[in-house]
User: Which sequence fits this backbone?
C-alpha cells in the first residue's frame, strides 16, 4: 500500500524508473506513484520480470504512543465468531488500526519451546498437550494480536472498544503488553515481539519456530478468502483434518486485511528425513487442489509448488498465465531471469516439465 516508485533493471540490462521517477529532475517520485500512462509497478511484485534496485516507501510520523494487546479465545470453534467480530472493526480502521493477527496456540508455543516439552509420542499433538500449552503459557487456542496508536486518551478509547467487542466471546481474556512481563512470562513473548514489529522494529524471533522440531524446515499453505467467520472455520477444519491424516501439527494464523483474509498454515518437518519432506509436500499438494475446488487460491507458495498453484488460476482457459507468458517473452526473450518463478516460464523452458 505504501510503495511509491521503483527503479528496475530489466532482463535486457536496461534501467527503468516508474512513476514520476521517469521524469528527469522530478521531486515527486516518492510522493505520487502513478506518473503518466499505465502503472507497471505491479509487474515487478512477486514476478521474474526485473530486479528492483530502488523502491520508495511512504513513511508515517512516529505516533505519540502505542499499546499492543492480545485477546485470548479458549476454544477452537471460537474462530468463526472472532473473525465476524473483527471485520467491521478492521474495515473502519478504528479501533483495529493495523493488520490484526489471529494465531493458534501451536504457533505461539512453537516460538518459545520445543515440541518434546509438550508431547514426545507419535502423531499430531493430542488434545491434552494443547490444553497444557494453553494453561502454562496463559493463552487461548486462538490469540488475537494488534496495536493501537495515538494520544493516550485515544488509545484508551480504542482499547475499550476492542474489549467490548471481543470479550463477548465466552471465556475470552484481554491483556496489553503492559500487563505481562516478557522476562518472567514466556507466554507473553509473542505479545512483546508483536509490539516491536508493529512499531517498526524488525525481529527474527519468529524464526525460532523452526527449533520446535529437530532440523526444522517448513512449507506453508496460504489461501486467501473473504474475511467471513464461516470461511475461516471451514478452512481451519479442512486443513487440520488433512494435517491429522498426514501426521502434521496444525500451526496456523489468520491475517485480516481491509477486505480479505489470509490463512497461513505452517507445516514443520525434519529436513534430514526424506519421508518427512515428501509427506509435507504431498500434504500441501492435496490442500492446494482441495482449496481451489472450494474457491480458495494461494497467494504464495514453495518453489516446488509454484506451477501447481498457478495452474489453479485457470479462469478463461488460463488467460492470466497466457498474459504473463506474453509479457515474460517480451521483457526476457532469453529466459534468463528466475525461470519458473510464480509458475511463469520463458519460451526457452516452457513445457519441459523442469
Assistant:
Amino acid at each position: 500500500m505504501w510503495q511509491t516508485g521503483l527503479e528496475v533493471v530489466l532482463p535486457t540490462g536496461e534501467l527503468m524508473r516508474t512513476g514520476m521517477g521517469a521524469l528527469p529532475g522530478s521531486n515527486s517520485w516518492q510522493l505520487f506513484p502513478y506518473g503518466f500512462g499505465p502503472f507497471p509497478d505491479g509487474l515487478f511484485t512477486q514476478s521474474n520480470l526485473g530486479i528492483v534496485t530502488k523502491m520508495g516507501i511512504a513513511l508515517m510520523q512516529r505516533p505519540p504512543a502505542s499499546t499492543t494487546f492480545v485477546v485470548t479465545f479458549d476454544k477452537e470453534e471460537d474462530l468463526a465468531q472472532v473473525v465476524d467480530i473483527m471485520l467491521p472493526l478492521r474495515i473502519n480502521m478504528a479501533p483495529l488500526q493495523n493488520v490484526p493477527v489471529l494465531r493458534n496456540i501451536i504457533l505461539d508455543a512453537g516460538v518459545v519451546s520445543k515440541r518434546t516439552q509438550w508431547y514426545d509420542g507419535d502423531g499430531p499433538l493430542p488434545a491434552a498437550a494443547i490444553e497444557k500449552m494453553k494453561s502454562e503459557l496463559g493463552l487461548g487456542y486462538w490469540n488475537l494480536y494488534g496495536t493501537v496508536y495515538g494520544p493516550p486518551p485515544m488509545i484508551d478509547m480504542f482499547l475499550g472498544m476492542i474489549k467490548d467487542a471481543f470479550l463477548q466471546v465466552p471465556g475470552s481474556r484481554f491483556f496489553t503488553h503492559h500487563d505481562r512481563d516478557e522476562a518472567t512470562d514466556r507466554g507473553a513473548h509473542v505479545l512483546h515481539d508483536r509490539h516491536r514489529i508493529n512499531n517498526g522494529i524488525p525481529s527474527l524471533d519468529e524464526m525460532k519456530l523452526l527449533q520446535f522440531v529437530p532440523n526444522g524446515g517448513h512449507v506453508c499453505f496460504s489461501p486467501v478468502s473473504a474475511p467471513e467467520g464461516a470461511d475461516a472455520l471451514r478452512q481451519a477444519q479442512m486443513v487440520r483434518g488433512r494435517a491429522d491424516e498426514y501426521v502434521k501439527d496444525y500451526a496456523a494464523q489468520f491475517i485480516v486485511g481491509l477486505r480479505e483474509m489470509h490463512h497461513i498454515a505452517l507445516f514443520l518437518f525434519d529436513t534430514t528425513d526424506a519421508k518427512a519432506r515428501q509427506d509435507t509436500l504431498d500434504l500441501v499438494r492435496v490442500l492446494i487442489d482441495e482449496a481451489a475446488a472450494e474457491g480458495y487460491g494461494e497467494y504464495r507458495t514453495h518453489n516446488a509448488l509454484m506451477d501447481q498453484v498457478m495452474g489453479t488460476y485457470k479462469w478463461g482457459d488460463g488467460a492470466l498465465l497466457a498474459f504473463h507468458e506474453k509479457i515474460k517473452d517480451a521483457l526476457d526473450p532469453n529466459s534468463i531471469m528466475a525461470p519458473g518463478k510464480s509458475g511463469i516460464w520463458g519460451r526457452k523452458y516452457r513445457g519441459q516439465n523442469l
User: Anything to note?
Assistant: The radius of gyration is 22 Å. The longest helix spans residues 274-293. DSSP finds nine helices and twelve strands in the chain. The CA atoms of residues 4 and 39 lie 11 Å apart.
